[in-house]
Design brief:
The structure holds 2 protein chains of 2 kinds. Chain A is mostly helical. Chain A has 7 helices and no strands. Classes of the chains: A mainly alpha, B mainly alpha.
């Protein structure tokens, strides 16, 4: 997984940036090697690209809110497709998706979390297709952070909803099966953040590599179908991440009907 | 009218030209010295076969999922919208297993 050139490589000319890089590697770098984690290629580029994505999402959100605060209360959509319109469309479709998966009461509770994850994953994926940027979702750092947020959110919401009886779910339907069910449930719960993060990371890396290998062969028009495939992959991976988040959350807070 | 289209085309083309400047930074870092270990051949075969078998299984699974979804749509064309969502989700979940094998293949290729 080599380094791709990005806009932020031009920053390496400044000595202050190199100092920042060294200090960060000293503080956050990984000196140990175990199993699959070998040489660490420490860069701060994904962090910078993540900041760009964050700035874009926050800006879009602010435009959306400004539209709500305008004279007519945001009822009249703007004529052309601009950023506010795009965010409105996205919000409605994500809310429809959340409501379809969870029912209305839960949808109101979980919509901010799911929509934020959606925005981050979607735009983080899409910025990888722009030449000169690399997707922040192709490192394990960002993906694991998002997956751990989802993991802790499910358990915290479950405990909030059910009290400490939430942990009885791990024991399975009847007490006699508990020694069998407990390891299975634990492993499946631990596999959730791993699978969420690895799925996203693998998709982004694979898509980037495919486009790059075709780019190295014939730079002119041949990578184009693969970039269109990349667009589809970005969208589908965002949908899958958010759908799985919604499924985990609704499973954690559901009340079983006997 | 033509003036506006010319302006639009110029702005789009200049944006694309600016994007091409990022290619200057595509400097490939020189690879570290590759020592051929004694088990390089085995690692290479393992990576290739592992990924191929995973792709085989994934293709079969996705084929079944898509076939069943298409059957359902053929039976009831009005439900096409409702079927499309779970179908895409199922395809992505099956594909994620293939991608786990891809990650292992990449890790193995790094060890050659």
């Amino acid at each position: 997984m080599g380094e791709h050139g990005t806009w932020f490589d031009y920053l390496n000319r400044f000595s202050w940036w190199q100092t920042i890089n060294e200090k960060a590697e000293h503080a956050f770098g990984r000196g140990w090697k175990a199993m699959a984690f070998q040489e660490s290629h420490f860069t701060l580029t994904p962090v910078l690209v993540a900041l760009v994505v964050l700035a874009f999402v926050v800006y879009g959100g602010l435009k959306f809110r400004a539209g709500l605060a305008s004279a007519d209360g945001g009822l009249v959509p703007p004529r052309k497709m601009n950023l506010r319109n795009f965010f409105e469309v996205m919000t409605e479709s994500v809310y429809g998706m959340v409501e379809g998966a969870m029912g209305e009461k839960n949808a109101r509770r979980f919509f901010p979390l799911v929509a934020t994850l959606w925005c981050w994953v979607l735009f983080g994926n899409l910025i990888g297709l722009v030449p000169g940027f690399v997707s922040p979702n192709d490192t394990l750092k960002t993906n694991l952070a998002l997956a751990l947020v989802v993991f802790f959110a499910t358990h915290i919401y479950g405990v909030k909803e059910h009290g400490l009886a939430y942990f009885k779910h791990f024991l399975g339907p009847s007490l006699a099966l508990a020694p069998l069910m407990l390891p299975i449930e634990l492993v499946s719960h631990l596999a959730r953040p791993v699978s969420l993060s690895l799925r996203l990371m693998g998709n982004m890396i694979a898509d980037h590599k495919v486009v790059f290998s075709f780019f190295a062969l014939v730079p002119l028009l041949v990578p184009l179908p693969f970039m269109i495939l990349g667009l589809l992959i970005c969208l589908v991976q965002a949908i899958v991440f958010c759908t799985l988040t919604m499924v985990y959350l609704s499973m954690a807070v559901e009340h079983e009907e006997h | 009218m033509a003036n506006r289209t010319i302006k639009k085309i110029t702005s789009v083309l200049s944006f694309l030209v600016v994007l091409c400047f990022a290619g200057v930074a595509f400097a490939q870092e020189s690879g570290k010295e590759m020592a051929i270990a004694s088990n390089s051949g085995l690692i290479a075969i393992a990576a290739a076969f592992g990924l191929s078998i995973a792709a085989l299984g994934g293709a079969l699974g996705q084929g079944r999922a898509a076939a069943t979804a298409l059957d359902g749509i053929a039976r009831n064309p009005g439900a096409a919208d409702k079927i499309r969502g779970p179908m895409i989700l199922a395809l992505a979940l099956i594909e994620s297993l293939v991608i786990y094998a891809l990650i292992v293949a990449f890790l193995l290729l790094g060890k050659i």
